[in-house]
Amino acid sequence: MGRADTATGHRWITDRQGRALVLRGLSTANSAKQAADGMPWIAEKDVLLDMHQDLYGPRVGGNGAPAWATEMDGLASAPTDPWELGYAEPGTVRAFDRFWGTVEGGGRDLRKHYVGALREVARRFADDDTVIGYDLMNEPWGGSVQGPAFESGPLARLYQDGIEVPVVIGEFGLDVGLPGAMAYVEKAQRMADDMGAGFAYWSNDNGNWAPWNAKSRTLTVGSGPGAHSVRITPRG
Fold first, then answer.
1. Is 185 in contact with 177 (CB distance < 8 Å)?
2. Residue-wise pLDDT tens digits, 172-227
3. Which backbone phi and psi does 172 adopt, to 5 degrees?
4. pTM of this structure
5. What DSSP character marks residue 4?
6. What residue ranges in the chain does DSSP mark as E strands?
7. In the chain, how many H helices and how many E strands?
8. Which of 92, 97, 123, 164 could disulfide-pair with 60, CB 3.0 to 4.6 Å?
9. Of the given ranges (29-43, 141-155, 219-233), which has the lowest mean pLDDT?
């Protein structure tokens, strides 16, 4: 990571010649999660490590936090269909509230434990040229605290206490068959350019969420008349 640029105030991921890089990439997606040998198709070396969670952790039916770090205060979390509705289950909401420290009562400082884990991961990979950065938490959820109150409060404090790094937008994308999808993709790309931020597009798997046509493997979002180019090459 390079020094702050005096004109923009940005800090940059740099190559070995000191040139600033704004990286474009792809999320490894479900094909990597389900493969027995991890990520067999990946040949490039630049990797953004993702501290992943969905529905907080296994104790409430998701993945991420271990049982010892899941405080539900006796509230239940029942299976839901679709699974995303599980975020509204009382036990899941309370687990997030306990993690962020937004409910009164005892309990441990789980966020402090989490920041400690982030720093251990950073120390482990500090000299590994393969790792260019870290996603401090996948799709963070505020529990009972949502919107600006969450983003400028508990979430901002996590980022401030975590690792000081240049910004990479991890995992943005959507089903391009939906109305307005391409306008969203273009807006997100313009925002990334204005910020000097890299991004990882979701996902690499075939289908409407992919950045290519399944037959031609060209770098387009989706297929057919609505296909749209996604820039993924490094920029110096």
1. no
2. 767 777 888 778 878 888 888 787 777 777 766 666 666 655 454 444 444 433 33
3. -120, 145
4. 0.75
5. B
6. 13-14, 20-21, 24-26, 47-50, 131-135, 168-172, 198-201, 220-221, 228-229
7. 6, 9
8. 92
9. 219-233
